[in-house]
Specification:
Elements: H1 2-10, H2 13-67, H3 72-118, H4 121-153
Helix pairs in contact: 1-2, 2-3, 3-4
């Protein structure tokens, strides 16, 4: 940054170039920040939904245990409701995954566009790797949760 400033002071021709570069950098940074914030929000939302669903399932389980003492009809209804909740969970998971994928793809595209202009291939590659890792982690977490849910249901 300091070098750029010094360059601007020395020549008039380089001022325009430096300014454009600065602008590019700023835009890139802004894009990255915005994208990250969006992704973070999505993650938070997903977590919240998951927690809500967990609570719902727990309540369902409790209800079923209570209803067993009364009659058989209620138990059947509760089981059906629990299955429906499970289905809902599955659907929600799928939706979240899709949204995350879409956001990630958008990020990739943006990065590509920016990097093509700036020729920072190494950085781009690093970013891609990071994104992939994040996605993998998310997938693993989801799978674990699903497994836990299945065990709980049984």
């Amino acid at each position: 940054m300091t070098t750029m400033m010094t360059m601007t002071t020395t020549r008039k021709r380089t001022t325009t170039i430096t300014m454009t570069m600065m602008m590019m950098m700023m835009t890139l940074m802004m894009m990255i920040t915005t994208m990250t914030t969006i992704t973070m929000l999505l993650v938070i939302v997903t977590i919240m939904l998951l927690l809500l669903l967990m609570t719902m399932l727990l309540l369902m389980m409790r209800w079923r245990r209570r209803s067993r003492t009364r009659t058989r009809a209620t138990t059947t209804t509760t089981t059906t409701t629990t299955t429906t909740t499970m289905m809902m969970m599955m659907m929600m998971m799928m939706m979240m995954m899709m949204t995350m994928m879409m956001t990630m793809m958008m990020m990739m595209m943006m990065m590509m566009m920016m990097m093509m202009m700036m020729m920072m291939m190494m950085m781009m590659m690093m970013m891609m790797m990071m994104m992939m890792m994040m996605m993998m982690m998310m997938m693993m977490m989801m799978m674990m949760i699903m497994m836990m849910m299945m065990i709980m249901m049984r």
